[in-house]
């Protein structure tokens, strides 16, 4: 039985313009060291600069592994619930039905391309954004579409999902930051208590 392993990672910490900060660069270098221990066959990334740069840094450490853009990994809102929780109301304020439908199509394209089994053994890294990590996790767990809300993800954190032929996906890791020292963890979250 062939297994498809996805190592879904959020880009390193970025500034307001979308460029990696010094912290984001260091986070990504440490992430690349961790990924270099695995038999990675491909690195896919969002077209946005923070993900492109993160994928480049990972590719430099994974010599000979192709690094390619995947437009399905772009940062977007994957699903707008009919009645969003009050805490999320501002995120969806002014989000019209056409934008919501486009987000749904992108989300379906993301899962259609990556959240499926493979004919041969594959190990792929997806460098993407917090909402897309949450969406892939929600999909793997067969949770309701609105459940992506609140599945937060830190910068340079690893979520690993396995897909098998004829079986439900397995969640191996979620938001794992064990490769980062304490001072580089928990970026990418709002102000809150850190576990």
Automatic annotation (TrEMBL):
Keywords: Hydrolase. InterPro entries: His_Pase_superF_clade-1, His_PPase_superfam, Mito_Ser/Thr_phosphatase. SUPFAM superfamilies: Phosphoglycerate mutase-like (SSF53254). GO terms for molecular function: hydrolase activity. It comes from the Bacteria. PANTHER family: PHOSPHOGLYCERATE MUTASE-RELATED, SERINE_THREONINE-PROTEIN PHOSPHATASE PGAM5, MITOCHONDRIAL. This is Histidine phosphatase family protein. It comes from Streptomyces atratus. The lineage of its organism: Bacteria, Bacillati, Actinomycetota, Actinomycetes, Kitasatosporales.
């Amino acid at each position: 039985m062939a297994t498809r392993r996805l190592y879904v990672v959020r880009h390193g910490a970025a500034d307001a313009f979308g460029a990696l900060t010094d912290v984001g660069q260091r986070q990504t270098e440490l992430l690349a060291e961790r990924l270099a221990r695995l038999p990675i066959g491909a690195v896919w990334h969002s077209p946005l600069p923070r993900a492109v740069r993160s994928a480049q840094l990972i590719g430099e450490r994974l010599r000979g592994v192709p690094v390619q853009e995947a437009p399905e990994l772009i940062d977007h809102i994957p699903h707008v619930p009919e009645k969003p929780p009050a805490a999320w109301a501002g995120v969806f304020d002014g989000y019209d039905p056409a934008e919501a439908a486009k987000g749904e199509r992108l989300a379906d394209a993301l899962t259609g391309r990556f959240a499926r089994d493979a004919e041969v053994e594959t190990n792929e890294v997806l460098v993407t954004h917090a909402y897309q990590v949450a969406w892939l996790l929600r999909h793997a767990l067969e949770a309701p579409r609105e459940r992506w809300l609140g599945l937060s993800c830190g910068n340079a954190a690893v979520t690993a999902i396995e897909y098998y032929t004829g079986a439900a996906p397995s969640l191996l890791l979620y938001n794992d930051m064990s490769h980062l020292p304490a001072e580089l963890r928990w970026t990418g979250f709002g102000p809150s208590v850190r576990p």
